[in-house]
Amino acid sequence: MRIVMIGTGYVGLVSGACLSEFGHNVVCVDKDVSKIAGLKEGTIPIYEPGLDEVVTTNAKAGRLAFETDLKVAMPGAEAVFIAVGTPSRRGDGHADLSYVFAAAEEMARYLSGYTVIVTKSTVPVGTNRKVEEIIRKVRPDAEIDVASNPEFLREGSAIEDFRRPDRVVVGCDTERAREVMKEIYRPLYLNETPIVFTSRESSELIKYASNAFLATKITFINEMANLCEKVGGNVQDVARGVGLDGRIGNKFLHAGPGFGGSCFPKDTLALLKTAQEYGAPTRIVEAVVAVNDARKQEMGEKIEKAFGGVKGKTIAILGLTFKPNTDDMRDAPSLVIVPYLQSKGAKIRAYDPEGTKEARKLLDIELCADAYEALMGADGVAILTEWNEFRALDLARVKSLLKRPLMVDLRNIYRPQMMEAAGFIYSSVGRPAG
Predict the structure, then answer these.
(1) Cα–Cα distance list, 322 to 257, 292, 334, 355, 358 (Å)
(2) Which of 148, 168, 198 is the last residue of a domain?
(3) Suppose 411 and one of 90, 111, 157, 386 were both cysteines; which one would form an S-S bond, judging by CB atoms 3.0 to 4.6 Å apart?
(4) Is 134 exposed, middle or buried (0-12, 13-18, 19+ CB in 10 A)?
(5) Dmax over Cα atoms in the chain, in whole Å?
(6) What is the CA 105 to chain-centroid distance, rounded?
(7) Coil, strand or helix at 54
(8) CA 87 → CA 11, 122, 185, 410, distances in Å?
(9) Residues 315/341, Cβ–Cβ less than 8 Å
């Protein structure tokens, strides 16, 4: 099939590249001239393991192309995916749908023949019907269906998630659109991937409900970690005991400094705003948002307490992105924790394997070439992101570089007993000291 993907951000580029790997002919369109020029030369604008290989291979095979002009990309398109950003709208927290609606309006001018318009962007309930209204207003003669097809990609694991998803969700109203969507995802039938067909409204809600539920699990275990610290429990034991219950599962039960990234913060906020607007408030989601916002500053205070105050002290920070295997800094805990520590008089030296470029735009700190450079002469170290390279640091070397053998591990990647034996003053989340 010939597919057009509008937007070459995280979702659009991964989805477009993977659909071309399925054998479809895909044209990815973006107004950012420099980004498209870079993609044509093989430069990937985001860090995602394996993405560069998928893009390069399929571009060379002629299945994946990049354009800035929708007019050039649209002829012959059987499906057009909208995968543009829907950031939180300033002032009220609702999802900003201006990019989605602008894409729908522009694309409508170039429609020819029957086309399925597929909303891949994360959008509130009712958005797909509004997209259809916009297109039909511009082109009343157009032969179209509009479908909802939310993404469930995890940053750092997106390629594998697209190739072997837990499920594919499609919201559409006609059998014709359903058949087109089946053909697009036909390769996944070989893996017996469940394809869930629903109404467009249900599909839109599934995305938000999924993210809100996962965010709730993270927030719940963080609160249990706080309780563990008060009563002498071990949150990792609690999480394992709870997670072995098949009704609950063990994923997203890892205590830490709170969730961040491009999805959970904005999607939980957008869901609660939509629910309030329709007179069906989601009290649990409201609590999750409030607790998670507070969590990040609490972790700054935890570091401050472990250091016995931070005024005039140098703190080595390992990890700045919201999670490992990505360069994404959006709503990362570091964006709250680092400024908090600076406001208390700390000097920050930091290292992140992939986040340096983004961090340079967002934080006024000294950025180092590797972990050991960041540690050199610091009064202690705090781990904010669980990159693999931080899991097996040379502890003897770490100790020799620090003025004081103090580590605050907000990701629980080391064992307290091991750190105590190595001579460290060690603080983690929801676990006894040693």
Answers:
(1) 10, 13, 8, 9, 12
(2) 198
(3) 386
(4) buried
(5) 75
(6) 28
(7) helix
(8) 13, 9, 27, 27
(9) yes
- Catalytic residue numbers read 263
Q: How far apart are CA 324 and CA 311, in angstroms?
A: 29
Q: Name the pLDDT band for 249 (thresholds 50, 70, 90).
A: very high
Residue ending a domain, among 180, 198, 216, is: 198
pLDDT given for residue 39 in this prediction = 97
Mind listing the pLDDT tens digit for each residue in 196-231?
999 999 999 999 999 999 999 999 999 999 999 999
Nearest Cα to 209, choosing from 165, 147, 277, 271? 271
What pTM was estimated for this model as a whole?
A: 0.92
Cα(424)–Cα(429) distance, integer angstroms:
16
- Please say whether the beta carbons of 208 and 267 come within 8 A: yes
Q: What span, in angstroms and rounded, lies between the C-alpha atoms of 393 and 413?
A: 11
The domain in which residue 160 lies consists of: 2-198
Question: What is the CATH number for 370?
Answer: 3.40.50.720
Where helices occur in 109-199 by DSSP H, the ranges are 127-138, 158-163, 175-184, 186-189
Per the DSSP assignment, residues forming a β-bridge with 25 are: 2
CA pair distance 199, 60, nearest whole angstrom: 38
pLDDT score of 251 more than 70:
yes
**pLDDT given for residue 191 in this prediction:** 76
Six-digit token pair at 409?
């591990």
- Find out whether 313 and 379 touch, Cβ atoms under 8 Å: yes
Q: Which two tokens stand for residue 367?
A: 């950025």
* Distance separating alpha carbons of residues 175 and 423, to the nearest angstrom: 67
Each residue's pLDDT tens digit, 313-336: 999 999 999 999 999 999 999 999
Per-residue pLDDT band for 434 (boundaries 50, 70, 90) equals low
Nearest partner of 410 among 309, 244, 260, 290, judged by Cα: 260
Range with lowest mean pLDDT among 125-139, 190-204, 341-355, 375-389: 190-204
Record the tokens describing residue 255, joined without a space. Answer: 């205590």
Domains identified in the chain, total number: 2
